[in-house]
Amino acid sequence: MKILAIIPARGGSKGVPGKNIKLLNGKPLLAYTSEIALQSKHLTEVIVSTEDGKIVEVAKRLGIKVPFIRPMELAQDDTPTIDVVFHALQWYEDQNIFFDAVCLLQVTSPFRTLEFLDKALEKFIEKNSDSLVSVQRVPHEYNPHWTFEVNIDGNLKIATGEAEIISRRQELPIAYHRDGSIYITKTRVLLKEHSLYGKSTAFIESEPYFYVNIDTLQDWEKAEAMIKNKLK
């Protein structure tokens, strides 16, 4: 299976200015994701999609291909991720190069391991599902069977639509949330259904120990603390 890995890394970042190439423990944040992606035995091509010249320079120094410059209109705060993926696939199709699937790797999840990435890719290939996402378990207090919405009368209703709440924690079904580390989707699903998920979504559970999603300065400080703890 031919799989294109796309690492989206735009220059504009309000939460942590310049975060994609900001140094984390002495190396650019981008390096953590690119180093793992380049080592994967299941990825056919690994690229960075960016509009920023400084990121292009860093990416090339790290050995990552930057085959095109992303248009500015696809590098805004509200640009849908799937539009960035479309742009990359279209560029390759114009070169008469085609892929069976896309693996989206966010720079903001720097601590995924090579073993975890390859395991996710192997599960995606084996299950032949439309997509696969990395997830983590939802703490029981936030389980959807224990969360509420407001009904038309201004009262609470169980978010899952059940009439009676599950009273015992032990009876709650396991629930998961996307953690943003890995998205893998068949090209056919991306192009025809305009979706990162399709009709069948496999999953792989992340280790909470390795999880951080860097969007704010507090997240950055958490990442620094995780590295220090690991070094100890």
Notes on the protein architecture:
- The protein has 232 residues and is α/β, with parallel strands linked by helices.
- Helix content is 30%, strand content 21%.
- It has helices at residues 29-39, 53-61, 81-94, 114-127, 187-193, 217-231; strands at 3-8, 23-24, 27-28, 45-49, 101-105, 131-137, 148-150, 156-158, 176-186, 201-205.
- A six-stranded mixed β-sheet has the order 4-1-5-9-6-10, sandwiched between helices.
- It is globular and about 55 Å long.
- The model has no long low-confidence stretch (mean pLDDT 94).
The amount of helix comes to 25-40%
Strand tally, please? Answer: 10
Q: Please trace the helix and strand order, writing H or E for each element.
A: EEEHEHHEHEEEEHEH
Termini separation comes to: 40 Å
Computed structural class = alpha/beta
Poorly predicted parts:
none
Q: Over the alpha carbons, how many angstroms does the gyration radius reach?
A: 19 Å
Kindly report the average pLDDT value.
94
Strand content: 15-25%
Coarse shape: globular
Report strand order across the widest sheet.
Answer: 4-1-5-9-6-10
Discrete helix count = 6
Largest sheet: 6 strands, mixed
